[in-house]
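Re: the multi-chain job from yesterday

Posting the exact lines I submitted so nobody has to dig through the queue logs.
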Amino acid sequence: MRKRMKRSSKNVFPLKIDELEQLMKSEFDKSPDLSFSKYEHQNKKIAVFFIPYQVQPDRVENLLLTPLLESKEEWSNTAILNKIPLNSGKEYQQMDEILPGLIAGKVMIYIEDEAAVVSYDFLNKEKRSLEGAETESVVIGPKIAFTESLVTNLNVIRWNIRTPDLAIEEITIGKRAPREVRLIYLKSLANDTDVDTMRQRLNELDVDNVEDSNVLMQYIEDDSASIFPQFHTTELPDRTSYAILKGKIAVLMENSPSALIAPSTFFSFFESTEDLYMRWNSGSPLRFIRFMSMFISVVLTPMYVAAVTFHYEIIPTQLLISIGQSRAGVPFPPVFEALFLELMIELLREAGARLPTKVGQTIGIVGGVVVGTAAVQAGITSNILIIFITISALASFTAPSYQMGTSIRLLRFPMIVLAGILGLIGIMFGLCMLIIHLLKMTSLGRPYLSPIYPIRFEDLNKALYRLPQNFQYKRFISLSLKDSIRFSKRNAKEKKDIDE
Amino acid sequence: MEINVKIKPNMRIQAFYLFFIIVSMQIGVGILGVPRLVFSEAKQDSWISILVAAAYVIIVLLAMLLILKQYDNADIHGIHRDIFGKWLGKIFSTVYILYFAIAFYSVLLTYIEVVKVFVFPDVSNFVMGLLLISLTIYGVLGGLRVIIGVSFVFGVLANWILFLLIHPALQIDFNHYLPLFQAPFVDLLKGARATSYTFMGFEILFLVYPFIQNKNKVRISSLLAVTWSSLLVLSATMLAIGFFSAEQLERREWAVLVLFKTQSFPFVERFDYIVVAELMMVVVPSLLFLMWGLTYSMKRVYKVKQKLTLYVAAIIFLIGTFFFEKHFETQRVINFAEQFGFWFIYVYPFVLLPLVLLKKRLKKRKGAGSS
Amino acid sequence: MIKKTILLLIFSVILTSCVPYKQLEELGIINTRGVDVTENNRVETTIIAYQFDAQNPQITTSTTGVGKTIKGARENAGYNTNFELSPGQIRLELYGKETAEEGILEYLSTLVRDARVSDTMLVAISNITANEVLTVGQEELNTDVGQIIQSLIEKEVKEYSIPKTSLQHFLHIEADIGQDPVAPIIGLRNNKPAIVGIGAFSNDRLVGELHIDQAFLINTFLTNVKGTPMEISLPREPFVDFIFNNETNSMQPDKLEDKEHLTILVRISKGKGDITLKNIDDLHFEANVHLEVDLYESSELLSVKNKKIAAILEEEIEKEFKRQYDVLLAKLQEIDSDPLGFGGIYRTKKKGERLTDTEWREKYPNITVDFNVNVDLMHYGTIQ
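And the result, structure tokens for all chains:
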């Protein structure tokens, strides 16, 4: 055993307590946090060592040290495991298990000359309590958001989906600083190929560390050059469980308050759980408004630029006069004017996101109202353009996914440039390029633009609009789930005449 | 080169999409000019000409399907190989490749000219060519699945233009269709012949047939496609005849586009500009299929990598856009494509059909003799 | 990725150097254009254009230019202004009387050739020169006279009082064999522009001036008219028994001698005329006009108490309309203009050779038409 040169994997036991102390001190020589205490009990030397701030000290004292030292028992490893009323007892023999165990909040007990160390779990993880969602705020429906604690998040998900059918696979990624990742899906529903693909991508990930699930998404998505996110990241447990119950796969990560949902389609980014809680006839128009606003957000300002730069013919005369008057004193070409204003909006948004909430609001008012008015009065922008820019900025914020909203907002810039170079033809070129790009994209190997292409008429009802629950007796066909029937279709109501 | 093509299961497509493939190939720039061409031959009886043409197209299509049915999963190049042998087959297939190239070129030039006349008189051919060809490259790189997706999505998205025709449709002068049955039979046939450039495009069936999964739906899907395009051409022509007086129509190059000039909404005064831009969505799918046909045929016949053909062809076409700047030069390219296509698409299948049937019978007899 | 970026860069460099800008505020956007022919066959154009200048709050300017062609005249007018005059937003094209009498097709076809020009612009003629209408009007009103003329015409078209006169309509009817276009005539009344009549064309030449009320008669054959107000004079004779006398407070007729006519104002809620060819050899046509009218006003207190008076009223209106149609046709035949489209009907019925324009011009003065007018009086308002 000693011949194995790799330090962490050698089995050093049995050894004397003092030797162990020396060894541990040398392992932790740059961070002198390790608490290593030695006790004499019934003529046996016992060492208890742990990292104080990783454990809950009073629990260690009450539940472990007191029973251990006040008992008359002759302790051995088996005796400890059998007699101490704690359920997380484990034996470790190798250093590469002991060291991470210490970091993960384990308390180690070593009785001299034993062949292993006994450990108990007393993790004291600092975490914030569950709070309402910040970035994806909802009006109706559950409002809690994920926290940075994986255990809490799993707890929430488990409580949402109370079935043993829920599979939660554990995968550790990151070579230098490993992190726990959980792959969550419904065993009886999720498509096996998709689960395998996801598991394989996670397992084969060969990186030193992953900061957050949003970073994880970038490592494992299909096309990293695309501007569109291919997996949905959400901070809502509600939304995550909804996706899992639909047969999708979720990935949760330790220390990350957002979940990944895969496979995602372009249209699923415009889906909010609120649509479900609303009745179908008010939910569908709301979703339609979101699609509309995406289109408006991409096209409105470029249209203005194209019309004013090249195609004044398409503007109705009355509008032409007001646009012309407001443009009269502006010294820049419309492209630069539009880019300047778009940039200003982006500045406001960025500043608002960085500043504390209260200051952020003030900045919004100062930037929006004061600077806007001043810019128009100073004659460097036209007021009609300000209206268009504001509408398209507002429209881009309607996307329920922050990632998608950002992508759409950024798309405007190349579109404006194209409109400024080639007018309507440029815009159409940009749109064609965009649609071809969307058609080429995949998410976990599944077409991104599904269910539009490849067309699945049964899925349109869920992806683009909603019909009454009675029509939604099928799950997404395009996901090729194991069981695509949600419930048997209720029999059509008997047709009744009036007054029967 | 094998006669039958083996297609991986994930490359298979549903016959449903054949409708969009054929419609997007047929309805391109051709439909813009077709009313004038037919009208100058058959006058107010143009509708008969178009119906005759549509019936003929359907017959050709049925002949093509009959040819394809004689094989398990063959495309035109495999059939050439089978019927004419290695060298002669290659020559025939090369003609097919040339046809794709010329058709691509004519579509490209026509759209560029439409843009120049209606929107940007000063734009250079090169810039427009660059736009369209970069779209083509980007799309073709995605493979047949993406190209079909483009034809499907664009096909659906471009349809809203049809609603803009309601306004001109309400202003039709029905007297323009009268008196009926005045054109002599020869003129009717000439009128039908004039639609040949518009109706071209269903020959893509010869190439995509092996990719189709449910072969039993091919017939209905392709027939519906041809019927739909014929209906579109027919209604565009009828609208133009009703809307314009005879003298006007004979002088309007792209009568269908001018129809859009009268529509206006409170927020958009002129729709012809938007329609010309929107036409890109109609043109790009044809360009993609023609380019795909070109590259795929090169791979089938000469085993050249599709990517190589794509890049080389794109550069050649891009340089080619320089040479035909004038209207009548563009017309010459279109006329050439039309002549070329006419014999190749409308006549050639009837030459091929008896040969294929004969060969099959011979084979059967041989098979029966040997066993 | 780097390759892509380089490609994109090259791309944008090439693109930026291609299409010249036509920014809105750097253009003089022509809104109304007047065309007159002066001596030596030169074209004088009067242009009312919008130009957006930060220093000048007045956005409409008018300039004139002279040239051999209409484009040349525009170029010439361009020397007077620091903005590039561009025709994409012309909404009204006004031709002087003399110009219109010589034919306006050459001017119209230059408009059509330019794809940027709108097809929905209005075509009108003036009874003096276009220049005078536009400049005097502009000075007098101190606003955009072009806009005012447009709204005048558009209002009347909306009421179906005059036929549609957009460029597309005008050209389409002009080019149809067997039909001639009409266009409103703009004149000055108290130095302000007003519609003073309707010009009848023979092909593209102005050949006669019709009364504005006759425009409605023509329009019934061109489209389904709806909601047109109209004043009609009827003979007083048949109504004497039904006129309420205010002085005697009875139905006794008043002094008759000074009044021969009773004037009523009706609103034609629906109207439709159609022409059938009764006899192709005699060129005998029948024109049926069906009108549904509401009574709005009458010059005297007419009481419509029962069916009988309604029937009389209907009959008198029919008679009056028939008389008007006959007058109109006589006038049109005299000037050889066929806006009602008898030739078009004849063409559709004619077998063999296609009808030519000259052939119809010869035949037109000899046609006979029976006008049958059928009037239904629908509502009488709140009083009887």
